[in-house]
Amino acid sequence: MNAQTPSAATLVGELSLGGGGPTVVVKDCIDVEGTVTGCGSRAFASQPPAARNADLVDALLEAGCRIIGKANMHEIAFGMTGVNGFTGTPVNPLWPDRIPGGSSSGSAVAVAEGLCDFAVGTDTGGSVRQPATCCGVIGIKPTYGRVSRKGLTPVHSSLDCPGILARDMDMLVRGMTAIDPTFVPEKLLHAPKLGRIKSEGVDAEVGDPLVYALMDAYPDMPYDILPSFEAAFDAGMVVMSHEMAQDFGPMLDQGAPFGLDIAARLRNARKITDAQRAEAEAVRTRFTAEVDALLERYDALVTPSLPTVPPTLAEAQDPQNVLSLTRFQRPFNLSGHPAITLPARSNAGLPIGLQIIGRKGEDAKLCAVARWITSCIPLFQSKDRNQ
Questions:
Q1: Which GO MF terms are attached to this record (predicted)?
Q2: Among 13, 243, 246, 333, which one has the highest count of C-beta atoms within 10 angstroms of its own C-beta?
Q3: Please, what are the domains in the chain?
């Protein structure tokens, strides 16, 4: 591809590392030797450069990829809008009045504007899948623990996964193969058996196009329920906040210059009790078992990617317009299952998407299911999305 000139705030730094393979940008919470891992934060700007590459950066270079830059992000990966008062806010290329999504905002924008072939982000509660949907690209959160987190910030997380964003399935699979040498692409021999998860609170503007598209291909696709779905969203928030407070709370005590919104979130996160964390872990155990049980009957499960179209930048100033954006994504960080989002457009031309969830460890099969959907259902075909 011909690289484009990045829009303001898409990248926090340009690089030229590696071979002549696919061009890649990596989120700025991923260590690249000799560069500061800035995490989109003034609090990290004066840190010393990384002494070595993150494991996944070494994997990209060994696969022959060319790393061309560090992508901007929501500060310390603790937010969903991508709005950043320190490094600037990446501009959503197709919908510039709407949020680019967070926290992998720069990664999603870089892919959407054609700056790179694929990008690497991180996903703690939807932070690859949500900005992918906002910007009209594909995003995958692998099975938790499948891709090494060594060299990533935050250092400790039981939720966070490095993931890939790309404009098409071929490049997304190529990206997964690059960061995970154990990933072996698969092809389906027949149509996958899919189950729809009953999801409350979906706007008709989002739900109707998805349902009609799926009904055309699968007129008899059953609905199923995950009884702990809502509880898993809340539990995921508790676990993420508790872990973020552990990693970044000491910096807050030392007067680190976090943005006002991030400092407030960290202070609130520090109020989470051990009892609340234990309750969240009980939900994790229960919800994981529910997902595993359903996936014994289906090849994959599907939900909307987002319950609403992404808010405008003005609307996103009200937290109430943002809080529920990851309600269908965050539960699968808690359970650790791989999940991929396919972008589409509403009848009004606004970004929507379909989330597909697979069995743990079967990331390649999940990608094969997603490829089948993009090949058979017009709503998810890139030639239609990009018109």
A1: catalytic activity
A2: 333
A3: 11-179 (3.90.1300.10), 194-385 (3.90.1300.10)
For every residue of 305-328, DSSP letters joined together read S-SSPPPBTTGGGSGGGTTTTTTT
Across the strands, what pairs with 67?
17, 24
Report whether pLDDT(1) > 70: no
Active site members: 27, 103, 127
- The pLDDT confidence band at residue 386, using thresholds 50, 70 and 90, is very low
Residue 302 β-bridge partners: 196, 356
Q: What's the residue count for the chain?
A: 387
pLDDT surpasses 90 at 3: no
Residue at token pair 């100033």? 317
Alpha carbon distance 119, 24 (integer Å): 5
Give the span between the Cα atoms of 325 and 281, in whole angstroms. Answer: 22
71's enclosing H/E stretch is: strand 66-71
Q: How far is the C-alpha of 113 from the C-alpha of 6, rounded, in Å?
A: 8
For tokens 């002549």, the residue is 20
